[in-house]
Amino acid sequence: MNVSGWIRAYMSKSMNNEEFLIKVANVIEKQLKEWDENYEVYIMKLTDYEFNVKKGETYLEVVLTEAELDELQKQAPFSLDVKIWKELERQGLEIIKGHGNYLDSIL
What we know:
With 107 residues, the chain is an alpha+beta fold. The protein has one domain. Helix content is 52%, strand content 20%. The chain has 5 helices and 3 strands. The longest helix has 19 residues, at 17-35.
């Protein structure tokens, strides 16, 4: 999957935190589905944001506070992506590179 840094920079500055998280979630889900159509991504807002990845009976979760989300969005256009991908990888998700520039440019 390919992404544009210029477009992402614009989105990170013009979207509110929740809109930006949803956009990043859609990009991550698209990448996961390139590997396997059975992946699903869900976001729930409770006290914090819960970013969930489901594949069959396997669930992975990344919890983000509103302050953390705000900080990551302001830090750099792909900081939120990096945080989520690294946490998913830490939980056992196998990262498959070589499908476009998205993962190669952020990890």
